[in-house]
Protein backbone atom coordinates (compact mmCIF):
# COMPACT_ATOMS: atom_id res chain seq x y z
CA UNK A 1 0.00 0.00 0.00
CA UNK A 2 1.11 3.55 -0.74
CA UNK A 3 2.89 5.35 2.09
CA UNK A 4 2.27 9.08 2.35
CA UNK A 5 4.08 11.77 4.34
CA UNK A 6 2.28 12.88 7.48
CA UNK A 7 2.72 16.58 6.81
CA UNK A 8 6.20 17.76 7.78
CA UNK A 9 6.65 15.28 10.64
CA UNK A 10 8.97 12.95 8.74
CA UNK A 11 6.56 10.09 9.44
CA UNK A 12 5.19 7.98 6.58
CA UNK A 13 1.71 6.51 7.02
CA UNK A 14 -0.30 4.09 4.91
CA UNK A 15 -3.02 5.64 2.77
CA UNK A 16 -5.49 3.60 4.83
CA UNK A 17 -5.36 3.55 8.61
CA UNK A 18 -7.27 1.27 10.98
CA UNK A 19 -9.46 2.84 13.63
CA UNK A 20 -9.87 0.70 16.74
CA UNK A 21 -12.94 1.96 18.58
CA UNK A 22 -14.61 -1.38 17.78
CA UNK A 23 -11.87 -3.19 19.69
CA UNK A 24 -12.83 -1.47 22.92
CA UNK A 25 -16.32 0.02 23.01
CA UNK A 26 -19.85 -0.81 21.88
CA UNK A 27 -21.80 1.95 23.66
CA UNK A 28 -22.47 5.39 22.24
CA UNK A 29 -21.04 4.72 18.78
CA UNK A 30 -22.74 6.05 15.67
CA UNK A 31 -22.75 3.01 13.42
CA UNK A 32 -25.89 1.77 11.64
CA UNK A 33 -25.57 -1.79 13.00
CA UNK A 34 -24.81 -3.16 16.45
CA UNK A 35 -21.63 -5.20 16.95
CA UNK A 36 -19.83 -7.19 19.62
CA UNK A 37 -16.23 -6.72 20.68
CA UNK A 38 -14.00 -9.35 19.08
CA UNK A 39 -12.03 -11.72 21.25
CA UNK A 40 -8.25 -11.45 21.45
CA UNK A 41 -7.67 -14.13 18.80
CA UNK A 42 -9.90 -12.39 16.29
CA UNK A 43 -8.45 -8.98 17.15
CA UNK A 44 -4.90 -10.29 16.70
CA UNK A 45 -5.83 -11.82 13.34
CA UNK A 46 -7.31 -8.50 12.25
CA UNK A 47 -4.09 -6.66 13.12
CA UNK A 48 -2.02 -9.28 11.31
CA UNK A 49 -4.24 -8.87 8.26
CA UNK A 50 -3.85 -5.10 8.41
CA UNK A 51 -0.07 -5.49 8.42
CA UNK A 52 -0.23 -7.93 5.48
CA UNK A 53 -2.29 -5.37 3.55
CA UNK A 54 0.37 -2.71 4.12
CA UNK A 55 -1.47 -0.74 6.79
CA UNK A 56 0.87 0.76 9.37
CA UNK A 57 -1.37 3.36 11.08
CA UNK A 58 -3.53 2.48 14.09
CA UNK A 59 -5.87 5.07 15.59
CA UNK A 60 -7.07 4.73 19.16
CA UNK A 61 -8.12 6.92 22.11
CA UNK A 62 -8.79 6.73 25.85
CA UNK A 63 -12.46 7.28 25.01
CA UNK A 64 -12.47 4.04 22.97
CA UNK A 65 -13.08 1.91 26.03
CA UNK A 66 -10.46 -0.84 26.38
CA UNK A 67 -8.88 -0.21 22.95
CA UNK A 68 -5.55 1.13 24.23
CA UNK A 69 -5.07 -1.67 26.77
CA UNK A 70 -5.91 -4.32 24.21
CA UNK A 71 -3.53 -2.87 21.64
CA UNK A 72 -0.81 -2.80 24.27
CA UNK A 73 -1.20 -6.55 24.79
CA UNK A 74 -1.76 -7.46 21.16
CA UNK A 75 1.18 -5.45 19.83
CA UNK A 76 3.70 -6.67 22.40
CA UNK A 77 7.02 -7.20 20.62
CA UNK A 78 5.75 -5.56 17.42
CA UNK A 79 5.70 -1.89 18.44
CA UNK A 80 8.15 -0.79 15.74
CA UNK A 81 5.85 -2.14 13.06
CA UNK A 82 3.18 0.47 13.72
CA UNK A 83 2.49 4.19 13.78
CA UNK A 84 0.14 4.69 16.72
CA UNK A 85 -2.16 7.67 17.04
CA UNK A 86 -4.09 8.29 20.24
CA UNK A 87 -5.91 11.26 21.78
CA UNK A 88 -6.44 13.38 24.88
CA UNK A 89 -9.36 15.35 26.24
CA UNK A 90 -12.26 12.89 26.16
CA UNK A 91 -13.02 10.17 28.69
CA UNK A 92 -15.91 7.73 28.23
CA UNK A 93 -17.20 6.40 31.53
CA UNK A 94 -20.42 4.52 32.31
CA UNK A 95 -21.84 5.33 28.90
CA UNK A 96 -21.17 9.07 29.05
CA UNK A 97 -18.40 11.25 27.59
CA UNK A 98 -16.56 13.65 29.89
CA UNK A 99 -14.09 16.25 28.66
CA UNK A 100 -11.05 17.74 30.35
CA UNK A 101 -8.53 19.82 28.37
CA UNK A 102 -6.46 21.07 31.30
CA UNK A 103 -2.68 20.76 31.14
CA UNK A 104 -2.73 18.45 34.14
CA UNK A 105 -5.22 16.07 32.56
CA UNK A 106 -3.44 16.10 29.19
CA UNK A 107 -0.19 15.04 30.87
CA UNK A 108 -1.93 12.37 32.95
CA UNK A 109 -3.70 11.06 29.86
CA UNK A 110 -0.49 10.80 27.84
CA UNK A 111 1.33 9.05 30.69
CA UNK A 112 -1.58 6.59 31.01
CA UNK A 113 -1.61 5.94 27.25
CA UNK A 114 2.12 5.20 27.34
CA UNK A 115 1.52 2.60 30.07
CA UNK A 116 -1.52 1.08 28.40
CA UNK A 117 0.17 0.80 25.01
CA UNK A 118 3.41 -0.50 26.50
CA UNK A 119 5.62 2.06 24.80
CA UNK A 120 7.98 4.90 25.67
CA UNK A 121 6.68 7.24 22.98
CA UNK A 122 3.47 8.07 21.18
CA UNK A 123 3.82 8.74 17.46
CA UNK A 124 0.84 11.07 17.34
CA UNK A 125 -1.50 12.54 19.95
CA UNK A 126 -4.59 14.49 18.91
CA UNK A 127 -6.88 16.66 21.00
CA UNK A 128 -10.27 14.91 21.04
CA UNK A 129 -12.43 18.03 20.70
CA UNK A 130 -15.89 18.39 22.20
CA UNK A 131 -16.85 20.97 19.56
CA UNK A 132 -16.36 24.03 21.79
CA UNK A 133 -13.52 25.20 19.61
CA UNK A 134 -13.20 28.80 20.67
CA UNK A 135 -10.13 29.49 22.77
CA UNK A 136 -6.46 30.31 22.60
CA UNK A 137 -4.28 28.89 19.80
CA UNK A 138 -0.87 27.62 20.84
CA UNK A 139 1.10 30.49 19.36
CA UNK A 140 -0.59 33.15 21.52
CA UNK A 141 1.29 34.60 24.47
CA UNK A 142 1.08 33.21 27.99
CA UNK A 143 -0.56 36.43 29.17
CA UNK A 144 -3.45 35.88 26.77
CA UNK A 145 -4.46 32.53 28.18
CA UNK A 146 -7.60 32.34 30.36
CA UNK A 147 -7.08 32.95 34.06
CA UNK A 148 -6.17 30.06 36.31
CA UNK A 149 -9.21 28.03 37.32
CA UNK A 150 -11.24 28.78 34.21
CA UNK A 151 -12.46 25.75 32.25
CA UNK A 152 -9.87 24.80 29.64
CA UNK A 153 -11.10 24.53 26.08
CA UNK A 154 -9.89 22.12 23.40
CA UNK A 155 -7.39 24.44 21.71
CA UNK A 156 -5.63 25.05 25.02
CA UNK A 157 -4.67 21.38 25.21
CA UNK A 158 -2.23 22.02 22.37
CA UNK A 159 -0.03 23.97 24.83
CA UNK A 160 0.40 20.88 27.01
CA UNK A 161 1.00 18.60 24.03
CA UNK A 162 3.74 20.94 22.80
CA UNK A 163 5.54 20.51 26.13
CA UNK A 164 5.20 16.72 25.97
CA UNK A 165 6.56 16.79 22.43
CA UNK A 166 9.61 18.72 23.65
CA UNK A 167 10.12 16.05 26.32
CA UNK A 168 10.14 13.33 23.64
CA UNK A 169 7.04 11.52 24.90
CA UNK A 170 5.03 12.64 21.87
CA UNK A 171 6.51 12.65 18.38
CA UNK A 172 3.76 14.74 16.74
CA UNK A 173 0.71 16.57 18.09
CA UNK A 174 -2.50 17.83 16.59
CA UNK A 175 -6.22 18.36 16.73
CA UNK A 176 -9.27 16.29 15.82
CA UNK A 177 -11.65 19.08 14.84
CA UNK A 178 -15.42 19.30 14.63
CA UNK A 179 -15.72 22.76 13.08
CA UNK A 180 -14.01 24.57 10.23
CA UNK A 181 -13.22 27.51 12.52
CA UNK A 182 -11.68 25.19 15.11
CA UNK A 183 -9.56 23.40 12.53
CA UNK A 184 -8.23 26.68 11.21
CA UNK A 185 -7.52 28.00 14.69
CA UNK A 186 -5.63 24.81 15.59
CA UNK A 187 -3.60 24.62 12.38
CA UNK A 188 -0.72 26.88 13.44
CA UNK A 189 -0.16 24.83 16.60
CA UNK A 190 -0.60 21.39 15.05
CA UNK A 191 1.56 18.93 13.18
CA UNK A 192 -1.55 17.02 12.09
CA UNK A 193 -5.29 17.66 11.83
CA UNK A 194 -7.99 14.98 11.83
CA UNK A 195 -10.97 16.12 9.76
CA UNK A 196 -14.29 14.74 8.55
CA UNK A 197 -14.35 14.47 4.76
CA UNK A 198 -16.63 12.45 2.48
CA UNK A 199 -18.87 13.06 -0.54
CA UNK A 200 -21.73 14.02 1.79
CA UNK A 201 -19.68 16.26 4.10
CA UNK A 202 -17.30 18.54 2.22
CA UNK A 203 -17.06 21.53 4.57
CA UNK A 204 -13.48 20.71 5.55
CA UNK A 205 -12.18 20.54 1.98
CA UNK A 206 -10.75 24.10 2.00
CA UNK A 207 -9.05 23.34 5.33
CA UNK A 208 -7.43 20.21 3.86
CA UNK A 209 -5.95 22.35 1.11
CA UNK A 210 -4.80 25.03 3.54
CA UNK A 211 -3.16 22.36 5.71
CA UNK A 212 -1.37 20.95 2.67
CA UNK A 213 0.04 24.38 1.86
CA UNK A 214 1.16 24.80 5.48
CA UNK A 215 2.86 21.40 5.71
CA UNK A 216 0.32 20.10 8.23
CA UNK A 217 -0.69 16.46 7.83
CA UNK A 218 -4.35 15.47 7.51
CA UNK A 219 -6.00 12.29 8.71
CA UNK A 220 -9.54 11.84 7.43
CA UNK A 221 -12.26 10.48 9.70
CA UNK A 222 -15.77 9.39 8.69
CA UNK A 223 -14.66 9.00 5.07
CA UNK A 224 -17.16 6.12 4.72
CA UNK A 225 -20.00 8.21 6.20
CA UNK A 226 -19.96 6.00 9.34
CA UNK A 227 -21.21 3.08 7.25
CA UNK A 228 -24.18 4.93 5.74
CA UNK A 229 -23.19 4.40 2.13
CA UNK A 230 -26.52 4.07 0.34
CA UNK A 231 -26.79 5.97 -2.94
CA UNK A 232 -23.04 6.54 -3.39
CA UNK A 233 -22.53 4.37 -6.49
CA UNK A 234 -21.83 0.76 -7.43
CA UNK A 235 -18.84 0.63 -5.07
CA UNK A 236 -19.51 3.36 -2.50
CA UNK A 237 -16.38 2.49 -0.51
CA UNK A 238 -14.15 3.13 -3.51
CA UNK A 239 -16.08 6.30 -4.37
CA UNK A 240 -15.55 7.66 -0.86
CA UNK A 241 -11.88 6.70 -0.70
CA UNK A 242 -11.22 8.12 -4.16
CA UNK A 243 -12.83 11.38 -3.06
CA UNK A 244 -10.67 11.67 0.08
CA UNK A 245 -7.40 10.20 -1.18
CA UNK A 246 -7.60 12.29 -4.33
CA UNK A 247 -6.74 15.33 -2.24
CA UNK A 248 -2.93 15.82 -2.15
CA UNK A 249 -3.13 17.11 1.42
CA UNK A 250 -4.66 13.90 2.80
CA UNK A 251 -2.08 11.69 4.48
CA UNK A 252 -4.35 8.79 5.43
CA UNK A 253 -8.01 7.80 5.68
CA UNK A 254 -8.87 6.05 8.96
CA UNK A 255 -11.58 3.39 8.74
CA UNK A 256 -13.02 1.54 11.70
CA UNK A 257 -13.83 -2.10 11.03
CA UNK A 258 -13.47 -5.46 12.74
CA UNK A 259 -14.64 -7.43 9.69
CA UNK A 260 -11.68 -8.96 7.79
CA UNK A 261 -13.64 -9.02 4.52
CA UNK A 262 -14.47 -5.34 4.87
CA UNK A 263 -10.85 -4.51 5.64
CA UNK A 264 -9.66 -6.39 2.55
CA UNK A 265 -12.23 -4.57 0.42
CA UNK A 266 -11.29 -1.20 1.92
CA UNK A 267 -7.59 -1.82 1.29
CA UNK A 268 -8.16 -2.88 -2.31
CA UNK A 269 -10.39 0.15 -2.88
CA UNK A 270 -7.73 2.44 -1.37
CA UNK A 271 -5.11 0.92 -3.70
CA UNK A 272 -7.31 1.63 -6.72
CA UNK A 273 -8.22 5.08 -5.46
CA UNK A 274 -4.59 6.04 -4.98
CA UNK A 275 -3.56 5.28 -8.57
Model description:
The strands form three sheets. The protein has an eight-stranded parallel beta barrel, surrounded by six helices. A two-stranded antiparallel sheet has the order 1-2. Strands 6-7 form a two-stranded antiparallel sheet. The longest helix is centred in the middle third of the chain and has 15 residues. It has a single domain, classed as NADP-dependent oxidoreductase domain (TIM Barrel, Alpha-Beta Barrel), CATH 3.20.20. With 275 residues, the protein is α/β, with parallel strands linked by helices. The protein contains eight helices and twelve strands.
Topology:
Elements: E1 3-5, E2 12-14, E3 16-19, H1 40-52, E4 57-59, H2 67-74, E5 83-88, E6 90-93, E7 96-99, H3 103-117, E8 122-128, H4 157-166, E9 170-176, H5 180-187, E10 192-196, H6 205-214, E11 217-221, H7 236-245, E12 252-256, H8 260-273
Parallel strand pairs: 3-4, 3-12, 4-5, 5-8, 8-9, 9-10, 10-11, 11-12
Antiparallel strand pairs: 1-2, 6-7
Helix pairs in contact: 2-3, 3-4, 7-8
Question: Shape, please?
Answer: globular
* Major sheet characteristics: 8 strands, parallel, barrel
Q: Beta-strand level of the residues, as a percent range?
A: 15-25%
Low-confidence stretches: 136-149
CATH architecture: Alpha-Beta Barrel
Give the number of helices.
8
CATH class membership: Alpha Beta
Helix content: 25-40%
> Could you tell me the number of beta strands?
12
Overall mean confidence score, pLDDT: 88
Keywords:
275 residues, alpha/beta, TIM Barrel, 8-stranded parallel beta barrel, two-stranded antiparallel sheet, 32% helix
Amino acid sequence: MELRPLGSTGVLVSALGLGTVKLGRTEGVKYPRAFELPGDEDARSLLELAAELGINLLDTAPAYGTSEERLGRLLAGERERWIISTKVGEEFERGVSRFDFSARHVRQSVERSLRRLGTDRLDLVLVHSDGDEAGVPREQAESERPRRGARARPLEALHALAELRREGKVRAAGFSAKTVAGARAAMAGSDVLMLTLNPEEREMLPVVREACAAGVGVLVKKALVSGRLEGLGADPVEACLRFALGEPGVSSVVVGTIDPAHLRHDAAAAERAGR
